[in-house]
Amino acid sequence: MKARNRPRRPLYIRIIMCALALVTAWHVFASFLWIAPWAPIRELVGQDRLASYMLPMLGQSWSVFAPEP
């Protein structure tokens, strides 16, 4: 049997897919750095930038569920 030639996706779809893949890769990498114990690789991103990404302005914290007595 012959393989069918599928048409290529339009350029804008490929650009959107690449952008989404990059955003997903950044989020996974940032989450790994945030959860993992401190290591020199964390300085690659910077603590301030990582904290501002992982704790946004309207972020939720665990203190809502277990406030200090």
How does the SSE layout of this entry go?
Elements: H1 11-35, H2 47-54
Summarize the structure.
The chain is mainly α and 69 residues long. It has helices at residues 11-35, 47-54. The radius of gyration is 20 Å and the shape is elongated.
Summarize model confidence as the mean pLDDT: 84
Succession of helices and strands: HH
The number of helices is 2
Major beta-sheet overview = none
Overview of the structural elements:
With 69 residues, this protein is an all-alpha fold. It has a domain at 11-50. Helix content is 48%, strand content 0%. Helix 1 (11-35) packs across helix 2. The mean pLDDT is 84.
Keywords:
69 residues; elongated; mainly alpha
